[in-house]
Amino acid sequence: MNTSCRFVSFLSLATSLTILLASCGGNSGSTTPPPPEAAPSLTFSAAATSVADGTSTTLTWKASNADSVSIDNGIGTEPVTGSVKVTPTKTTTYTATAVHGSKSATQTVTVTVTPKGPALQSISISPASFYLRVGEKQQLKATGSFDDGSSSDITLQLTWTSASSTTAGVGEGLVTGAAAGATDITASLDGLSAKAHVAVSAAASTNVLTYHYDNTRDGAIATETTLTPANVTKSGFGKRFTYAVDGQIYAQPLYMASLKIAGATHNVVFVATENDSVYAFDADGRQTSPLWKVSIGKPETVSDPLGIKPLLGITSTPVIDAATNTMYVVARDGSKFVLHALDVTTGAEKAGSPVTVTGSVSGSGGDSKGGGITLEGGCYQRSGLVLANGNVYLAFAHCAHGWLIAYDETSLQQTAIFNSTPDGSGGTFWMSGGAGAVDAGGDIYWMTGTNFGDSQPGYNNAFLKMSRTLTIDDYFMPSNTDTLIKNDADLGSGGLVLMPDNSSGTPHEVIGGGKDGRIFVLNRDRMGEYQSTDDVLQVVQTGTQQYNNLHCTPVYWNGSLYVHSASDVIRAYGWSSSTGMLTTAATSKGSTVFGSHGATPIVSSNGNSDGILWEVEYTDYSSGGAGILHAYDATDVSKELYNSTQAGSRDTAGPAIKFTPPVVADGQVFVSTSNELDIYGLL
């Protein structure tokens, strides 16, 4: 038998089928049918199924068991695996079809097109400049302006960064103060950005409750951690805001941190004016109107050619008892003086308040009537109030005699009275607004002045050491007091300061001086009384004139005593804690000569570091000129750090007022003027 076999193979793109044909001797066998045709599979997706008008997305597909893939909407036939970028102009459904023979698979993807919105043109941030304490927060709001004229809040769409996260951190526009300093906060989107500026001060912790900070009257605040010689410059420091008031501010401002008023906590600065008004302001500028304001009398109209005018109201610096939240303040009400005890949280009178101040003593002076002397209506209550020994002490000047009167701080009942010259005249308590100093035992130290032709006996031109009941324990009167009287050269034109204990044989000192420019260093345990030769520890001459020099309370800080005489520059004298003696010449001095009356300085520091000496120049006060705030390196006052004329009009203070010192507290500097309180700080 002749046998032969032939094989023919047919191969398609999707499958292989082998058909075996056999022919054996002309006889034919049976045929196997082909398997059924398989359908293709397909995946089809879009990278973004929603796009803005004018933007693109990518279509991606993958087919198996297919010969080809076709996509509509103008894309056409594509390989079985691939992708293509599309930019639809409207919402579009794309259909992809995979084909194999007579079989196919279809998938669709819909890309939604949202209309193109307006283009962002600019970003603004509110507030653009603000102030925080460490730990405080401020939510910023960012507004976007678009090319169609619309605007909207885009705060949460932005990227927020801080130039110094150690000073202030930021997230979603919420800024948190971290450390004292200043920095910029930047918000950015789509290549655009905007900035806000934040100044941060240390958390508030300081109280300024009395004249020159405390009862030693040293004029130094050693808890200032925000203001330093490095950042008090014209670029980083200046006037932050102003509060208008209704009269001259001769009284030094007072300050309380974290005081609750009307349910909210504020750092508060208190201001008293010659219009008999007392204000409580938010010291950080968080509220433009007063927290409270009270009027406590009707001021007297006066015309003192060399002194206060046109109104005589509140002239002395009040004093605050933080334990009871009570402010004691004396107001001129018509022709009488009235002592008020005010609640510092509301301004309301406390129980038993107010009381009219009266007084009389036995005496044969020129104004004696029936053997008695009475507190006269022409006095000024000029010296700062003193709170000590459970009493409030009031001192009077600008009248025939010097008067001291004490009132119980709780009942406001009069507890003691003293007249410095009951059988003569003069001996008034002026001290250019300074206040009596109190030692650890409760004794109080004062200085008295004089006027042309005042007569002895009495205590004209004297340092007085007095008991809590206003009896004299000791005193010093210079040997040339008669000459001082003839020339109106008050010893008590300036104030005094109690020095820290030194390690010499005379550890307890009081220092002060007057118009003749002599600075007296006295032994508080034996003051020297009146001798033909002055019995004092030391005398240092300062000033540039014969009889018109010191009108200030000295400042003591870290081994230096500072004074600024009339028509002179600021001067620093060294003081030894070993000997208790001053250097006879200034260790450093400034270069700016102040005019009439010089200035009363203060010092702020962080312990014994970062000392800054501050003072206000009031050379042009008589013509209504602006006060000028000056700041110097306290370790060398020849180095002026800043003054308020350096930045043009940006930092200009209100019309100057004489004698009133600035106050530094918790990163702020408060400057009194004739019609406003100016607040300076980091910018």
From TrEMBL:
Keywords attached to this entry: Signal
Keyword Ribonucleoprotein: no
Pfam family, one: Big_2
InterPro entries attached to this UniProt entry: Big_2, Invasin/intimin_cell_adhesion, Quinoprotein_ADH-like_sf
Stretches assigned to the BIG2 domain: 119-199
PROSITE patterns: PROKAR_LIPOPROTEIN
SUPFAM superfamilies in the cross-refs: Invasin/intimin cell-adhesion fragments (SSF49373), Quinoprotein alcohol dehydrogenase-like (SSF50998)
Descriptive protein name: Ig-like, group 2
UniProt organism field: Koribacter versatilis (strain Ellin345)
Lineage: Bacteria, Pseudomonadati, Acidobacteriota, Terriglobia, Terriglobales
